[in-house]
Amino acid sequence: MRFSGKTVVITGAASGIGAQTARLFASEGAKVFASDIDDEEGAALAAEGVGEIRYRHCDVCDPGAIKALLDGAADETGGIDIVFNNAGAGGAREDIGEIEPDAWDRTMDLLLRSVAMGIRYAVPHMKGRKGASIVNVSSVAAAGPGYSPTAYAVAKAGVLHLTKCAATDLAQHGIRVNAIQPGFINTNIFTTSLEIDGEMKAMAKAAIAQMSSNAQPVARGGQADDIAQAVAFLASDAASFVTGASLVVDGGITLGPRHSWDPETPGMFAALEAMEQQLTNGGQQPG
Ligand SMILES: NC(=O)c1ccc[n+]([C@@H]2O[C@H](COP(=O)([O-])OP(=O)(O)OC[C@H]3O[C@@H](n4cnc5c(N)ncnc54)[C@H](O)[C@@H]3O)[C@@H](O)[C@H]2O)c1
């Protein structure tokens, strides 16, 4: 029960990494405010009955909504101990030679400004609280090009630098700030943006599960719980001397993707693109 009596706020908690992290914190005694834009899945998470999880609607592209979420959680419980800035999606897919300013801005708002404002509006409620800790989701995409589209990679690299700057700014208030860099984790993020349903979606999910097992040196797919466990460590008192750090949890993908030594396994991004192309062709292999 590492988080007994603590108030935890999580964004993007209706699915994947956020949902599993909410379950973990709640199972260890925290009061968890799980927020998302997917109200149906968010309510279902709260109804699972794992500890104390309260669902709140919050679109992280709206700074006012982030402030309302954090103010509300603090009003209800007397303050905030842990924030997990997690919400995200794939963002704009165009390369830098084609992307339009609006698409760039939308991706930055979703993946980078959301984290900055998640910190900004949490600070007044965290100052001076023992063990106060913020964890931000970056990605292995911040380690270099080739893991994701460009705008996503740049935003996630920004999250790493933001984490270091915030850790420096907030140490005086006793608030630690760290980041996590997940590798290829088998969640809905890869299929949410695809305009497919039913059988096609099930096919896509099966393909992702297969790809995620082959993407990295560790020969199994990354799971949301792999990330939740690492987030809980960074947020816990066991990490009380850790701030401004980033923990890479990727089954070794950044050491050298599996396709660098296994010719049967395509690169992750290439494989995803091939899958999407196949799906848009109605399940046919591209010619
Ligand atoms: N899955 C991976 O391989 C992977 C790798 C590196 C980083 N990440 C990051 O981890 C985080 C969680 O992703 P996941 O894999 O669990 O994906 P997921 O799709 O399972 O969950 C993402 C959640 O964020 C929510 N969300 C999307 N836009 C939002 C918005 N504007 N406001 C509030 N909530 C919003 C979605 O509704 C969803 O519930 C993301 O920031 C993602 O970029 C994931």
Write a brief caption for the model.
This protein has 287 residues and is α/β, with parallel strands linked by helices. It is 44% helix and 13% strand.
Question: Can you describe this structure?
Answer:
α4 runs parallel beside α6 and α8 packs antiparallel against α10. A seven-stranded parallel beta sheet has the order 3-2-1-4-5-6-7, sandwiched between helices. It folds into two domains: 250 residues, 3-Layer(aba) Sandwich (Rossmann fold); 29 residues. Helices cover 44% and strands 13% of the residues. It is of the alpha/beta class and 287 residues long. The relative contact order is 0.13. The mean pLDDT is 93. It is built from ten helices and seven strands. α6 links the parallel β5 and β6. Bound molecules: nicotinamide-adenine-dinucleotide. The site of nicotinamide-adenine-dinucleotide has 28 residues, from α1 and α7.
